[in-house]
């Protein structure tokens, strides 16, 4: 939580400053410099039509976040770099959130991954550990009702799987052990 508050303080501080082109920065061992000083501010990359396609926020030479834009200037994704993980938010063309995911610094999913329908309702909520689905996995109908929930362990169904109809009524319950349906 402290990292998020710090991040927003930095955004506020740098929102009034002008940006530099990313190509004007130099990099050494993960630290970025501008005019031989650790860079704090916003660095941008533009396409051949002078549209901003990438915006990177730095503090003391460390990249805190990266935003990617399409050719029309709409945000496509935002990457926030925390100490031990990376929070990635992807967006629909409308600007609404399409998904939110947590990766470790090696870009392996570790944590919660949530996706949304275009109407804003939750589509899925999956949990990952070391890149494999692990824990309770939930999928939803576009109307927001739960469609199914599965207990997973190391990428295999392991426990109950429950399937619901569009009104939220339980249709079927199956028990899995190591990915194989078994009778209770």
Nutshell version of this structure?
By secondary structure, this protein is mostly beta strands. It contains one helix and 18 strands. The protein has a 15-stranded mixed sheet that branches. The protein has a three-stranded antiparallel sheet with strand order 2-3-4, with no helix packed on it.
Total domain units: 2
CATH architecture descriptor name of the largest domain: Alpha-Beta Complex
Radius of gyration: 21 Å
Oligomer: single chain
Q: Which series of helices and strands comes N to C?
A: HEEEEEEEEEEEEEEEEEE
Please give the share of residues in helix. Answer: under 10%
Largest sheet, strands/sense/barrel: 15 strands, mixed
InterPro entries: MORN_2
Structural commentary:
Pfam families: MORN_2. InterPro entries: MORN_2 (IPR011652). It contains 1 helix and 18 strands. The protein is mainly β and 184 residues long. The strands form 2 sheets. The protein has a 15-stranded mixed β-sheet that branches. The model is unreliable at 8-16 (pLDDT under 50).
Sum up the structure in keywords.
184 residues, mainly beta, Outer Surface Protein A, domain 3, 2 domains, 15-stranded mixed sheet, 3-stranded antiparallel sheet, 18 strands, elongated
């Amino acid at each position: 939580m402290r990292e998020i508050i710090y991040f927003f303080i930095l955004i506020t501080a740098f929102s009034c400053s002008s940006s530099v082109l990313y190509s004007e920065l130099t990099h050494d061992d993960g630290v970025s410099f501008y005019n031989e000083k650790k860079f704090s501010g916003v660095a941008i990359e533009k396409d051949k039509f002078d549209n901003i396609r990438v915006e990177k926020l730095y503090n003391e030479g460390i990249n805190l976040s990266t935003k990617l834009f399409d050719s029309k200037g709409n945000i496509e994704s935002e990457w926030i770099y925390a100490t031990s993980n990376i929070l990635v938010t992807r967006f629909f063309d409308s600007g609404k959130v399409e998904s939110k995911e947590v990766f470790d610094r090696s870009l392996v999913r570790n944590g919660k991954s949530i996706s949304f329908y275009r109407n804003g309702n939750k589509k899925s909520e999956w949990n990952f550990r070391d890149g494999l689905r692990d824990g309770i996995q939930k999928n939803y109908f576009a109307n927001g009702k739960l469609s199914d929930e599965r207990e997973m362990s190391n990428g295999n169904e392991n426990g109950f799987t429950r399937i619901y109809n569009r009104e939220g009524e339980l249709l079927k319950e199956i028990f899995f052990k190591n990915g194989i349906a078994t009778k209770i």
